[in-house]
């Protein structure tokens, strides 16, 4: 808008004279409506109606064939007091979020930081680091369960070669299977890393120069320059990480299908919704699960948003300029 | 006096030479350190891909022996895979869904993004906030009613549930495009409007060509999102084997005995290949696209 104002000011006006208000363009209402209509249709039929509908269904017993039957809060009672799988799924999901979100942020920061160092060859390294994040999840998971196979997979052979006598059984061991998934996630760090890299390259070099003139150590300039300026990126990836981890499905589903995960060590929240809805056809119960998921995600996001004033530093004052 | 100065000078010169040498040596050490770290990380990132390719070229017997180099190279795996599993059909299905989804996403995301960034109207900000919040909405909340809609339409199993929604704007793509459109100066539009250009023509003839990189980015993201998608096909096409995509096919066949593990790696390698090739040709678009969706908004 400010740019438009500048044009509207005639160069022949004298200083101090107020520019006449910019000639108002007729707002092309029909055009706006037509352009927005695909989105409007989508939001009504694929978001708003489904949300209302699934909210209603969460209070019903509904198996797709018979019409939904109102049962009040029974679904929620069952979830919290009778369904062991729910607690197992919730525990697994919280466990993996608590470990993998900070690990992913640290690893993305580290790989991005390493990428800012070389004078030559940065693009080649960046390509290599980014590549795994492009690989289809099914193919990547199959590859990982295969190469991490304790009997014939090459990873354990390498671990033995460097002196680890009894390498873990990875996906075959309930204690280690989630670590396999975490490694799989770290391997695909590329897209997060690119955002961190952009953030790191945005830090003005003059700040580092000033710090080094003042005799700051590498750690100090990281701690007091890089880290504060990177907090918006860290904040962004924490929020998307929390939302993402409650929807974590494909890798866990494929991996547990490969190794017969009897102990449910790779049974996550999204898996539980999937099994309730499309294996047991308990649509009402699955809807209730989905709404609890929404509430949990909202609460987590709110907590992070509330704390952001204390630790997120915006150089321009706001996320949305 | 003069001898003193001379001595001093020599001393100083020697010192500065030493300092420069030391600095150069330090820089060299730094470079070696950086590159060794980068190479070590590269090896880690490449390793799984390398192993997939190596295993895909082994014979069945060798693939279960922990060896790390194919002996002999069984190139024939890459032909056998097409007869061992209906690989060609899966590929064509995946390609069809991905291409249609890409067209749908681009066609339905450009106009809302245009209107949300280049025109002033009442309710624009609210609309944009609603759009942003739908991006945060977990898909599980809407999944079941949407499934019911499609099943009432008798669209399950078919490709329609995978393709049709993409024609109703993807919030992510609209957001990304809007970010890019906003960066195009208003003067361009103003000039065209003064010349009597219609809003539609302005969008199609002036803004869209300028925004080609961003449109390429959303097209690529849409294509890859669909190519890599597993959950959508799992809901909508599993019941009909003729409709299986690569992800569903590979996941279903990995448990079956007559398909060898090495063959699954061959199939995985072929599944990854298009993505990797596309990436190599369009890295710049990708990386700029990812960056645009980050905090730079």
Automatic annotation (TrEMBL), chain B:
Chief place of localization: membrane
Keyword tags: Cell membrane, Membrane, Transmembrane, Transmembrane helix, Transport
Protein localization: Cell membrane
Tagged with keyword Transport: yes
CDD domains noted in UniProt: TM_PBP2 (cd06261)
Residues annotated as transmembrane: 37-57, 94-116, 128-150, 162-181, 202-224, 263-281
Topology term for the membrane: Multi-pass membrane protein
GO biological process: transmembrane transport
Domain ABC transmembrane type-1 intervals: 91-282
Keyword Membrane listed: yes
GO cellular component, one term: plasma membrane
Name recorded for this polypeptide: Unannotated protein
Organism: freshwater metagenome
Lineage summary: unclassified sequences, metagenomes, ecological metagenomes
């Amino acid at each position: 808008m400010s740019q438009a104002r500048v044009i509207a000011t005639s160069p022949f006006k004298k200083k101090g004279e107020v520019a006449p208000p910019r000639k108002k363009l007729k707002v092309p209402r029909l055009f706006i409506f037509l352009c927005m209509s695909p989105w409007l249709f989508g939001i009504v039929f694929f978001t708003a109606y489904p949300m209302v509908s699934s909210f209603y269904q969460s209070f019903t017993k509904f198996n797709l064939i018979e019409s939904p039957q109102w049962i009040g809060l029974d679904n929620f009672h069952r979830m919290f007091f009778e369904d062991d799988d729910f607690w197992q799924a919730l525990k697994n999901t919280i466990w993996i979020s608590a470990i993998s979100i900070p690990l992913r942020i640290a690893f993305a920061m580290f790989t991005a930081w390493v990428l800012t160092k070389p004078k030559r060859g940065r693009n080649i390294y960046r390509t290599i680091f980014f590549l795994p994040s492009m690989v289809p999840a099914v193919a990547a998971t199959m590859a990982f369960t295969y190469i991490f196979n304790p009997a014939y997979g090459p990873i354990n052979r390498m671990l033995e070669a460097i002196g680890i006598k009894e390498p873990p059984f990875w996906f075959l061991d309930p204690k280690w299977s989630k670590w396999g998934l975490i490694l799989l996630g770290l391997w695909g760090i590329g897209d997060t890393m690119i955002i961190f890299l952009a953030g790191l390259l945005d830090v003005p070099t003059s700040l580092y120069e000033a710090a080094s003139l003042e005799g700051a150590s590498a750690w100090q300039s990281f701690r007091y320059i890089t880290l504060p300026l990177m907090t918006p990126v860290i904040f962004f990836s924490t929020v998307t990480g929390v939302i993402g981890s409650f929807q974590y499905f494909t890798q866990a589903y494929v991996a547990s299908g490969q190794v017969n995960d009897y102990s449910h060590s790779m049974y996550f929240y999204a898996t539980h919704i999937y099994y309730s809805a499309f294996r047991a056809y308990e649509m009402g119960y699955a809807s209730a699960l989905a709404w609890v998921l929404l509430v949990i995600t909202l609460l987590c996001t709110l907590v992070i948003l509330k704390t952001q004033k204390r630790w997120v530093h915006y150089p321009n004052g706001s996320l949305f300029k | 006096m003069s001898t003193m100065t001379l001595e001093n000078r020599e001393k100083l010169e020697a010192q500065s030479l030493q300092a420069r040498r030391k600095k150069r040596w330090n820089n060299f050490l730094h470079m070696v350190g950086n590159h060794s770290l980068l190479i070590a990380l590269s090896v880690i990132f490449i390793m799984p891909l390398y192993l997939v390719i190596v295993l895909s070229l082994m014979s069945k017997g060798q693939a279960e022996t922990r060896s790390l180099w194919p002996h002999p190279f069984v190139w024939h795996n890459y032909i056998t895979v097409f007869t061992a599993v209906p690989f060609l059909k899966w590929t064509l299905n995946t390609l069809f869904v991905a291409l249609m989804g890409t067209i749908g996403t681009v066609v339905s995301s450009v106009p809302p993004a245009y209107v949300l960034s280049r025109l002033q109207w009442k309710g624009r900000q609210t609309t944009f906030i609603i759009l942003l919040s739908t991006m945060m909405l977990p898909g599980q909340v809407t999944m079941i009613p949407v499934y019911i809609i499609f099943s009432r339409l008798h669209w399950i199993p078919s490709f329609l549930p995978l393709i049709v929604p993409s024609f109703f704007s993807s919030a992510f793509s609209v957001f990304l495009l809007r970010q890019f459109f906003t960066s195009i100066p208003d003067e361009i539009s103003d000039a065209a409007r003064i010349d009597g250009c219609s809003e539609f023509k302005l969008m199609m003839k002036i803004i869209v060509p300028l925004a080609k990189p961003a449109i390429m980015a959303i097209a690529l993201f849409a294509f890859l999102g669909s190519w890599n998608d597993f959950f959508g096909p799992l809901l909508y096409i599993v019941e009909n084997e003729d409709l299986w995509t690569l992800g569903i096919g590979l996941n279903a066949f990995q448990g079956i005995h007559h398909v060898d593990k090495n063959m699954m790696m061959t199939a995985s390698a072929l599944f990854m290949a298009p993505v990797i090739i596309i990436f190599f040709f369009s890295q710049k678009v990708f990386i700029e696209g990812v960056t645009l969706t980050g905090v730079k908004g």
